[in-house]
Here is the input.
Amino acid sequence: DAGVIQSPRHEVTEMGQEVTLRCKPISGHNSLFWYRQTMMRGLELLIYFNNNVPIDDSGMPEDRFSAKMPNASFSTLKIQPSEPRDSAVYFCASNPSGTDTQYFGPGTRLTVL
Amino acid sequence: SQQGEEDPQALSIQEGENATMNCSYKTSINNLQWYRQNSGRGLVHLILIRSNEREKHSGRLRVTLDTSKKSSSLLITASRAADTASYFCALANFGNEKLTFGTGTRLTIIP
Here is the structure.
């Protein structure tokens, strides 16, 4: 199994630009999670999906952030417009139904100038 | 919301020694998990201990859970240079799939 796949691995953009991060969960996993990691705030859960349906988006910082999961094998996290304070590493994770163990992708390091 | 607090924040030991890190939390949990993160990588699950368990082993890892004190410890025996990483506890509450991650312990093994 290839594990959770994220793209791009690195993204550098300018303030005000739209950023789209992509995630392919492990095949057969029912839940997908988006996290953000910074030195100041640690690892924060932004949103999670179960069977492609958003269950809890209480961690999404503001309306500039949106996430979709159009099918079981793909999810996107979009930031529009981006700001320098959005600079962080964004992780996607998935887990199979009936377990709490999460499998993380390698992350996308986002830098907003 | 609940977050695990880990101590120490950083730990440096000689290769071959044992490393112990602790996690404390505030409310009831369903289970507690430990994850490792190597520099520049995603988190990797190490071990899960349920609220009705007190101790669990996996290879060189030993995890304890004291629900009365709301604390857990992770012991890595006979440490190796490859154990250098950050270690996070993660709390699973009842009724949902969310994990709340602790602040992490940065472990450095000195060869």
